[in-house]
Structure formats: C-alpha cells, structure tokens
Amino acid sequence: MSTILDTIIAKKQQEVAAAKLVQPIDKLEALAAEAAPPRDFIAALSATPDVRLIAEVKKASPSAGIIREDFDPVAIAKTYAQSGAACISVLTDENFFQGSLEFLRQIRAVVEIPLLRKDFIIDRYQLLEARAAGADCVLLIAECLSSEQLLTLHRQAGELGLQTLIEFYDAENLPAVLATDGRLVGVNNRDLRTFHTDLQHTVRMRSQIPTDRLLVGESGIRTHDDVKMLGAAGVKAILVGESLMRQADIGQAVHSLLGTA
Ligand SMILES: O=P(O)(O)OC[C@@H](O)[C@@H](O)c1c[nH]c2ccccc12
C-alpha cells in the first residue's frame, strides 16, 4: 500500500538532489564545521525526573492542514523556551508541513535550549544542512529507512556532533531501531497510513523498549492527564506540536500541559 510517507520520500529525494546542485557538498561541509558547537539535547531531557517537553514549531501538516494562521516561528520558540520546554523541534519540511530550515536558523539565533531538525532525513547532506543551521539533534524515521540506512545515518550524525531521535510506529521496525545505539527512542502514536492517533500505542510499545533507552512519546498529546498517564507508563519525554499551536496563548498552553500553572 502506498502511503503519504512514500509520496513525501519521493519528493524529498528530488529536493535533496536539487539542493546539492545549488549548494555543493564541500561548501556545506565547511559551513557545518564552522557552526557553533552542538548542545546536549539528551542531557536537557534528563535534567529532571519529570516528563520533559520537546515543543514543536509546526504550522501545518498533511493530516490537519493549516494548524496556526498567525505563525511567527521565532516568537513561538521564545515562548516555548520561557514557559518550560526542555527542547524545541522545528519542522523544516516545506512542501508538506510549511516548515523551513530558515526557521531553525532564526530560532537558533535567539533561543538557548537544544533544537531538533524535524524532517524526513534520507541523506547525509541533510545532516550537514541541519548542523550548519544550528541543529543539535535530528529525527530519523524507521518507516522511511532500511536498517542499514538507519545505522549509517545515525553514525554519520554522531560524526557531525548531532544526536538522534529515532522514531518508529510499526512494532516490526523496533529491532532496526534497537540495532543502533541511539539513546533517544520515539514512539509515534500517529499511524501515517490512516492518520489515526492513539496514545496507548506508546504504552503498548513500552515493555519492548529496554530501559536504558530514553523513551519519547510522540503525537496526539493534549492534556496534563495525557502527560501523567504517559509518565506513569515510563515515558520520559513527549513531543507535542498541534495541541500547543492551536491555543491563542501558547505560554499558558505549555504550563497547562506540564501542570505548572
Ligand atoms: O502535532 P502533534 O500531534 O502533537 O505531533 C507532534 C509530532 O509528534 C509530529 O509532528 C510528528 C512525529 N513524527 C513525525 C514525523 C514527521 C512529521 C511529523 C511528525
């Protein structure tokens, strides 16, 4: 069955090929090498025993359409950082999520906490782009990569000083995730074939993920009760976009979610 992921990956291959013509890889290598040293994304998620928040800057998605009309990525990121997010995820895919690598660069200039490049990474070139723009961590999606690609991209990320968040949805992809030594493992609660979201998916996967991995619950998280439920199930961090981005007062929304106000 062909899914939205197949469509996204086909487009991504074209984009990366086109980007390499505009910005040759040796130029990008130099820019990545000059970037300020990376911050410790994993340490920021382990700093306290409570469930830590990776707050996502997300304008739109294929499942929801436009999520927020009044979209100022830098202002949103500052609010996230001031309101208690441990890290920020910046969607950089343009075609399907209306994101931009430029947002990441702008946010890096004004926010201190670690940043994740959230995109569909299939090529080392995108790791260099991420590092050159100031990312500290990148998302790798098991459903988009072979086991070999996952190992290779995780290793290449490490060589560039980038940490990885390795995400899966299908239980059958978990062995490939665990074959890497990536410490951050994400369970996506959204089935990208149907867009159906179920928080119990993270809970069900919990027992199959060794406790030396830091478990990140992703997608569809809306309330403080959700956070408590996931925390009780052993989730150490959550990745939340839509439910925060839909609120008029994003700072208040972060506090409500974390139970800090
Ligand atoms: O907006 P939500 O439902 O809070 O979800 C955030 C994040 O988990 C979601 O954006 C996401 C998780 N994995 C992805 C992979 C690609 C694009 C997007 C995603």
TrEMBL record:
Domain Indole-3-glycerol phosphate synthase: 5-257
Transmembrane parts of this sequence: none
An example Gene Ontology molecular-function term: phosphoribosylanthranilate isomerase activity
Annotated EC: 4.1.1.48
Pathway: Amino-acid biosynthesis; L-tryptophan biosynthesis; L-tryptophan from chorismate: step 4/5
Keywords: Amino-acid biosynthesis, Aromatic amino acid biosynthesis, Decarboxylase, Lyase, Tryptophan biosynthesis
InterPro entries (alphabetical): Aldolase_TIM, Indole-3-glycerol_P_synth, Indole-3-glycerol_P_synth_dom, Indole-3-GlycerolPSynthase_CS, RibuloseP-bd_barrel
GO biological process: one example: L-tryptophan biosynthetic process
Catalyzed reactions per annotation: 1-(2-carboxyphenylamino)-1-deoxy-D-ribulose 5-phosphate + H(+) = (1S,2R)-1-C-(indol-3-yl)glycerol 3-phosphate + CO2 + H2O
NCBIfam families reported for this sequence: PRK00278.1-6, PRK00278.2-4
Membership in a protein family: Belongs to the TrpC family.
UniProt-recorded name of the protein: Indole-3-glycerol phosphate synthase
Source species of the chain: Rosistilla carotiformis
